[in-house]
Design goal:
It contains five helices and no strands. By secondary structure, it is mainly α. The longest helix is centred in the last third of the chain and has 38 residues, at 78-115.
Length: 122
């Protein structure tokens, strides 16, 4: 089973290296993301749920991790994630069913991590 919070954290380190190695491209990508996520007719939560559905339909595990985390941070509920996954399955057929299970697993792990108390070393 994938540890989604750990996988997303690890990938973030690799993305930092990519940002330093290809700064112009990554700056442009960041600008695109900011423009796409800007709340207008749709709020950020809805946009993250759309991104999650697309990630499932396109079968991008890393995208699933990042967009589940972001949707949860924007206040997405389990029911909203499940409904989004249902749309992804509808649009992506059988392969999306399998990747929808990945997204649900990621949601459960991030949700559990968010509700655990932070401990400090003594």
């Amino acid at each position: 089973m994938t540890n989604w919070p750990e996988q997303t954290k690890d990938l973030s380190g690799h993305l930092r290296i990519l940002r330093s190695g290809a700064p112009e491209v990554m700056k442009a990508f960041s600008g695109l993301a900011q423009a796409a996520l800007a709340p207008k007719a749709l709020d950020c939560k809805t946009k993250e749920l759309i991104a999650l559905g697309i990630a499932v339909a396109l079968r991008c595990d890393d995208c699933i991790g990042f967009h589940v985390k972001a949707a949860l941070e924007q206040g997405a509920s389990r029911d909203e994630v499940l409904e989004t996954l249902g749309m992804a399955v509808y649009m992506g057929a059988g392969p999306s069913v399998m990747y929808a299970s990945h997204a649900l697993d990621a949601f459960e792990q991030f949700k559990a991590a968010a509700t655990q108390p932070v401990t400090t070393a003594a």
